[in-house]
């Protein structure tokens, strides 16, 4: 695991780094856009990837995106990434070359 993936950043630092309020950060979590870990005491811990994600989400919302649009785009990208991965594995297994679309 790289250092950017470790969930070690508390809410106070996240709000300082992103410029978002605690309420905004909790709202994005509630909407399934970011997934912090919880300590035994219930405090949220975020990774650097989470911080980058929060900034990305906030920027898209400022640009007029809706939360539903963000989640739908990610769902489509995830499906494409999965398809690309499977295609790559098949190409590797059968020593074929990808076709251009």
TrEMBL record:
Superkingdom field: Bacteria
Chain segments annotated as transmembrane: none
Domain HTH merR-type: 8-76
Keyword Lyase: no
Listed CDD domains: HTH_GlnR-like (cd01105)
UniProt entry keywords in alphabetical sequence: DNA-binding, Repressor, Transcription, Transcription regulation
Keyword Repressor annotated: yes
Alphabetical list of Gene3D superfamilies matching this protein: 1.10.1660.10
SUPFAM superfamilies xref list: Putative DNA-binding domain
Name recorded for this polypeptide: MerR family transcriptional regulator
Source organism of the structure: Exiguobacterium aestuarii
């Amino acid at each position: 695991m790289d250092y950017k993936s470790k969930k070690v950043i508390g809410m106070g630092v996240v709000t300082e780094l992103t410029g978002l309020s605690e309420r905004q950060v909790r709202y994005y979590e509630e909407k399934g856009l970011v997934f912090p870990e919880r300590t035994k005491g219930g405090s949220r811990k975020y990774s650097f990837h989470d911080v980058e994600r929060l900034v990305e989400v906030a920027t898209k919302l400022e640009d007029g995106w809706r939360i539903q649009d963000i989640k739908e785009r990610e769902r489509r990208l995830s499906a494409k990434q999965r398809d690309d991965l499977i295609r790559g594995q098949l190409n590797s297994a059968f020593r074929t070359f990808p076709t251009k679309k």
